[in-house]
Design brief:
alpha/beta
């Protein structure tokens, strides 16, 4: 970036793994372009974020995102609307508000209602979801490589502004991510299978494992790759996943019913190796 050119001001609300990784990635790949303000609830989180170089400035107050070009909400999905309402009293029409939430349709619907109630149609919101992350939590799990070659889904903007969508897309591209465009409805239907259901399965499996371990502690001595993958996913944070499940329950249940149907088929034929083989081969076609 040329000397004297004004930096793009990014406000990141929530400095856990997602928000911290966003800051680190932007700083590593395009640091000269961005000035990043990090907002969090805990002073310790802010100190760590600043120390590792994820942000240029830290604050406990949402007021400090005033004047930002983009504000990214990286908090649990059940807090996004509430934070948007607070931001509506702070930022102006030149600020683009976006998010990183795993559920899109319900949030967009609630924001449309919010805009109508607050008469804030002038505010811009661009819905986005980076398909990245792992089971760890907090700023110490943040990585500058988190979004490298990952897909970020953009489901549109409330103002139907292609310019604003491109601005948000460019920010994510600067993290190393690819951009995918689709409707909020389609996103929620598909991510319910590729992410939400898989976490439901992992959590359920982990509960069965813990029940077995109470009676047979030696179970930990005979684990391998597939087991470790399931248990790894099951250590994901409940504060993040409970709201996701609730917000996208309709789509998750649809895929869950299909999964249970297929699981029961395996259960019925388990004693017959030929039938089991046929079922396995069906899954591999």
């Amino acid at each position: 970036m040329k000397i004297g050119v004004k930096k793009i001001r990014i406000g990141i609300i929530g400095l856990g793994q997602m928000g911290g990784s966003l800051g680190l990635a932007l700083k590593k790949n395009a640091g000269s372009k961005y000035y990043i303000i990090g907002i969090a609830r805990r002073q310790e989180t802010l100190k760590t974020a600043h120390k590792i170089g994820a942000v240029d400035k830290v604050s406990l107050s949402l007021q400090d995102v005033k004047g930002c070009d983009i504000v990214v909400i990286c908090t649990p999905v059940d807090t996004i609307v509430s934070i948007y309402k607070q931001l509506s009293k702070i930022v102006g029409e030149d600020t683009i508000i976006t998010d990183a939430g795993s559920v899109k349709e319900q949030i967009e619907q609630q924001l449309r209602i919010t805009n109508y109630e607050l008469r804030k149609e002038r505010l811009s919101f661009v819905a986005a979801h980076p398909m990245a992350g792992n089971e760890k939590n907090g700023i110490l799990s943040a990585s500058a490589e988190m979004f490298k070659a990952a897909n970020v889904v953009i489901t549109g903007s409330l103002k139907k502004s292609l310019k604003n969508e491109k601005f948000v897309a460019k920010m994510w591209k600067d993290t190393g991510a690819n951009i995918i465009n689709m409707s909020a409805k389609k996103h929620d239907e598909l991510v319910a299978l590729t992410s939400h259901l898989t976490h439901c399965i992992a959590f359920s499996f982990n509960k069965v494992y813990k029940d077995v371990k109470k009676k047979s502690p030696e179970v930990d001595k005979i684990t391998a790759g597939s087991f470790k993958s399931m248990v790894r996913v099951a250590s994901s944070g409940a504060d993040m996943w409970a709201p996701i499940f609730a917000a996208n329950s309709k789509n998750i249940i649809k895929h869950m019913d299909a999964f249970i149907k297929e699981f029961n088929i395996f259960k019925k034929v388990l004693k017959n190796k030929d039938k089991v083989k046929k079922e396995i081969l069906k899954t591999q076609k």
